Amino acid sequence: MKESEENFILRRAEISDQVKIWDILQQAVQRRKNDGSNQWQDGYPNSETAIIDIQNKVGFVFEKDNEIAGYAAIIFDVEPAYENIEGKWLSEGEYAVIHRVAVSERFLGQGIATELFLKIEDFVKSKQVVSIKVDTNFDNVQMLKILDRLKYSYCGEVHFRGSPRKAFEKILS
């Protein structure tokens, strides 16, 4: 599966991408720490996370000019933590979940995360799914800005590993 527009490609991650994905995830973990965020400061994600995503065929890399610029897990399955939202989702039907969004340090400030989300939205629509649900930490300012910019609606709180998270949904048109 490849989707291309200009010099951006969203493709399913391969096991050979694992080292680069882990490097990008580690950079994102450090950025969260440097920003004073509690997100991803508890040993998750770890080096096995990308391998499991790849094996489960939910890991995707975002390439710019043939170089991996970002990573995300796109899951077309029920997210158990989303079943107990303190609030209300916009829809109750089939949805895609986006987890573990991370951008390489080399590509920061280039709008890569926004482009990645737009490609994910196109990919999800191509699967005839019209809802994307995502969550983030209350103090992940960068992700909150992206979700606002792309018109994701705040729906309430969900809990992951004992911590509350802001939950968002977007109905794709």
TrEMBL record:
Q: Mind telling me which InterPro entries this protein's record contains? A: Acyl_CoA_acyltransferase, GNAT_dom
- Could you tell me the superkingdom of the organism this chain comes from? Bacteria
An example Pfam family from this entry, by short name, is Acetyltransf_1
Where does the record place the N-acetyltransferase domain? Answer: 8-173
Database matches in SUPFAM superfamilies:
Acyl-CoA N-acyltransferases (Nat) (SSF55729)
**What protein am I looking at?**
GNAT family N-acetyltransferase
**Organism name:** Kaistella gelatinilytica
